Amino acid sequence: MPTWLVTGTSRGIGLELVRQLAAKDANTVIATCRSPSSAAALGELASAHKNLHVIPLDITSEESIREAFEAVKGLLGPSGSIDYLINNAGIGSGETIVDATPAEMERQFRTHVIGPMLVFRTFLPLVEAGSRKVVVNVTSGLASIGLDIGPKNASYSIAKAGMNMLTYKTARQYPHITIFVMDPGWVKTEMGGPDAMIDADFAVSKHIQLYEAAKLETHAGKFWSYEGKELPW
């Protein structure tokens, strides 16, 4: 019975991910978000699925991350572990370098680099105890220099590129953990917008297939598309 921990589950990709995971009774799903009390759709899902547990976690707060870790430990018990840690929480930003502000750059970096780093370090003991030891940082194709996407979404792209390097460094330091970054595709969510190319239910089904098929020798330290293709850094 694999245990999944997913950040950023109040809406969008994260919400759809826990919806599909919780539909399988064999999964234990720990869904985290900044404010569970205001996440109505997530609360409805938790009421319908006994294997879905909601924990407050603000990835921009080290104290919140530590408190979430203690709550998860209490939930899972002394022999508990995490098989899949999915750092999904994120925020969008559409400006270019011309109008990017230092405050927005800092907000993006804290959300997409510092937050995932602290979540990984804090929950590492539970990941180490798991049988799968899969960690996924959800990045973006906009973070790829090789794809040459241009000047748009500057601060977001720069922060996601930082997430990519964080993942590479972590994979090299922990060679026994299957840690990689995944571009989820341009998905029709509140963040992706109505012009996005992929429906959330289809995209997330592909995400889960990639996560469950991930192997240390083939996936660790690499940049993958939701379709299972390796992308250029």
From TrEMBL:
Record organism: Exidia glandulosa HHB12029
Protein name as it appears in the record: NAD(P)-binding protein
CDD domains: carb_red_sniffer_like_SDR_c
Signal sequence bounds: none
Lineage: superkingdom: Eukaryota
Family: Belongs to the short-chain dehydrogenases/reductases (SDR) family.
UniProt keywords, alphabetically: NADP
PANTHER family documented for this protein: SHORT CHAIN DEHYDROGENASE, SHORT-CHAIN DEHYDROGENASE/REDUCTASE SDR
Residue ranges of domain Ketoreductase in the record: 2-190
Any one GO molecular function term: oxidoreductase activity, acting on the CH-OH group of donors, NAD or NADP as acceptor
Stored InterPro entries: KR_dom (IPR057326), NAD(P)-bd_dom_sf (IPR036291), Sc_DH/Rdtase_CS (IPR020904), SDR_enzymes (IPR052184), SDR_fam (IPR002347)
